[in-house]
Amino acid sequence: MRSSVRSKKFLRLFVSYAILTFVAVAIIYPLLWTIGASLNPGNSLISTTLIPKKPTLDHYRELFAGKESLLYERWYWNSMKISFFTMLGSVISVSFTAYAFSRFRFKGRKNALTLFLLLQMVPQFSALIALFVLAQMLGMLNSHWLLILLYIGGQIPMNTYLMKGYMDSIPRDLDESAKIDGASNTRIFFQILLPLSKPMIAVVAMNGFTGPLGDFVLSSAILRTPDAYTLPIGLYNLVNEVMGASYTTFAAGALLISIPVAIVFLMLQRNFVSGLTLGGIKG
Amino acid sequence: MSHRKMALCLSIIPGLGQWYNRQWAKGVLFLVFAASFLTAFADLFNMGFWGIVTLGTEVQRDNSIFLLAEGIIAVIVALFGLAFYCFNLWDAYKSGERRDRGDRLNTLKEEYHQLVEQGYPYVVSSPAFFLLVFSVIFPVLFSFALAFTNYDLYHTPPAKLVDWVGFDTFLKIFTVDIWRSTFFDVLSWTVIWTLVASTLQVAAGILLAVIVNQKDLRLKKLYRTIFVLPWAVPGFVTILVFAGLFNDSFGAINHTILAALGIDPIPWMTDEHWTRVALILMQGWLGFPYVFVVTTGVLQSIPEELYEAATIDGASMFAKFRYITLPMVLLAMAPIIITQFTFNFNNFNIIYLFNGGGPAVPGSTAGGTDILVSWIYKLTMQSSQYALAAALTILLSLFVMGIALWQFRRTNSFKEGV
Question: Rounded to whole angstroms, what are the CA distances from A118 to A45, A90, B33, B127, B140?
Answer without folding.
Answer: 45, 19, 33, 20, 12
